[in-house]
UniProtKB/TrEMBL annotation:
Coiled coil: none annotated. The lineage of its organism: Bacteria, Pseudomonadati, Pseudomonadota, Betaproteobacteria, Burkholderiales. The complex comprises the extracytoplasmic solute receptor protein and the two transmembrane proteins. It comes from the Bacteria. This is TRAP transporter small permease protein.
Amino acid sequence: MIQKLIDKYCKLLAWLIVGCLALMVVLVFTNVVLRYAMNSGIAVSEELSRWLFVWLTFLGGIIAMHEGAHLGTDTLVSRLPLAGKKACLVIGHVLMLFVCWLLFKGALDQVKINWDSTSAAMEVSMAWFYGCGMVFAVSGAVILLNHLWRLVMGQLTEAELIGIRESEEEPIDVPKPIQ
């Protein structure tokens, strides 16, 4: 159930990223044309593009965490027995949950500090800028907790215990869950 919700959430995030990227391209291209053709420009273009880039980076990080697409190495873990792979997964996920907490706490502090500060061009609260760290931290924690839950319930495959992919070109095979 929660896995399907996470899948749908990540698809929504992917579409948001597409929207952010499309808007960035339109803003920057239009601004360049206006500067060269009419010696003017869109005042908020640069700032909004920067904000969109930061948000799409964090949203992309959520999707990458869900898909196991972050950089990693399996030199040691792939050679361990099943129990060792499970132990490494639990240790790694607990450490990542701690990092999610640190990121959430730091982003929350920045949101509180910058709540009344506004951006230079858009005059929007800077809390929105720093809020992306909170969104990433909460989303990442949910994904990690779901992964741990699936481990406890015996729903993870041995390939998922390693947590990285060999190549982007190769599709992820879906073997049967381990017991």
